Amino acid sequence: MGLAALVAVLAGLLVLALGYSNARADPIVREAYVPVTGWPQGEAPIKVLALSDVHVAGPDMPPSRVERIAGQLNALSPDLILLSGDLISEKRTATKLYNEEEVAAPFATFQARFGMVVAPGNHDHWVDLGAMVTALEGHGITVLRNEAVKRGPLLIGAVDDDYTGHDDVPATFAALGELGEGPAVVVSHTPDIVPDLPRAVAAVFAGHTHCGQISLPVIGPISTLSRYGDRFACGMIRDSGQTVFVGAGLGTSILPLRFGAPPDVWLVTLGPPR
């Protein structure tokens, strides 16, 4: 092997090592305050911890890493945890796949007084979703599919996965309406449901895009897997009066690598206008 070829191989290995290290990094906690008009008088603000795309699988996201991240995030004392899908992974590059119970168990270590609410993602549908739901509910975790639930003063609508065609926005909003009055949020795996919402809610929490997972300087995200391109690619977005939070996720898809899109979570406080 010539010197140039050797240098190229070493440079390639260095890039892979850096990408894997990026994927294994502790998540960045991004924070925001959302003022909600008509917030119930006397009710304290609610801290929502929004997670997405955990993709439990080896080598980068074994269950033990989920437990370690839970310990870190529990220190934030969230009131409610919303998880916008893709808990599991079946990626071909995985060094180890885990069954539904092994995936669900570490999520029980997250702590919030109003618990955790999950909206399924496309990867959850690509395995045995029924077994995944059973495992999660066995640990006291609420899974909603085009349904709604009330936690404290907050109404939570969960839209099932749009990417695999299981979403039903009208049914979700009908379920929200049955809960009565109150500030409402929506959790969905993909943000592509936002243009279909019949009315604005306090916030929409989503994932799926991974913020590109590989986002290059100048070029930006290689792909967001969204039919709207970069419109809902990443971060806190204001779209036609709707506040949307799109997380980069905790795990990875296809390859256990990240560049320019570090793992993150959102800690969003909902409360009265300041």
Automatic annotation (TrEMBL):
The lineage of its organism: Bacteria, Pseudomonadati, Pseudomonadota, Alphaproteobacteria, Sphingomonadales. The keyword Transmembrane helix does not apply. It comes from Qipengyuania polymorpha. Keywords: Hydrolase, Metal-binding. Pfam families: Metallophos. Residues 46-211 form the Calcineurin-like phosphoesterase domain. SUPFAM superfamilies: Metallo-dependent phosphatases. It comes from the Bacteria. InterPro entries: Calcineurin-like_PHP, Metallo-depent_PP-like, Metallophosphoesterase_sf. This is Metallophosphoesterase.
